[in-house]
Write the structure tokens for this entry.
Amino acid sequence: MTATNLAELYDLPVLELAAVTEGLGNALSQAPESGGPNRHSCWLTTINADGSPHVTGIGALWVDDTFWFTTGRTSRKGRNLAREPRCAIATATAAADLVLEGRGELVTDPGLVAARAAAWAAEGWPCEVDESGVALTAPFSAPSAGPPPWHVYRIEPTSITALGMKEPGGATRWTY
């Protein structure tokens, strides 16, 4: 992985990736009534068939140094990822605004699906693995996810770009 200082012009330091991503695993609450400074929205961008961007809010998890999310395979984002896996997730935290670019991959490993289901359930979304062993079901999900079953996706990162929100600031892009 290489780091590029995007704020060198202003004599600002290269940001430390660990400092930018520290706390992402518990800082992205989407739970109802959790608004305010500790509630963060994640925005997924996929590519429509005509090449235009499709941007939608999602409930993402940060695990194993990347983002994970769910959607129905027949939802627009699911269809877009099946056709063209390049995508990006953007979010803002107290430490930094960041964008992770990469390839959205459908997760079919039952152990990983179960682990992500447990993580979402711990955050308050009462999902569980369905009878297929590779998809999720729950009493509800985001309307944009389509009807159940919902599948788990992982983004294989190609780059992360961050803009520091704390002194001294800075902007850095890490390329994998």
User: Anything to note?
Assistant: The first strand starts at residue 2 and ends at 5. The chain has a mean pLDDT of 90. Residues 16 and 54 are 30 Å apart (CA to CA). The two ends are 4 Å apart (CA to CA).
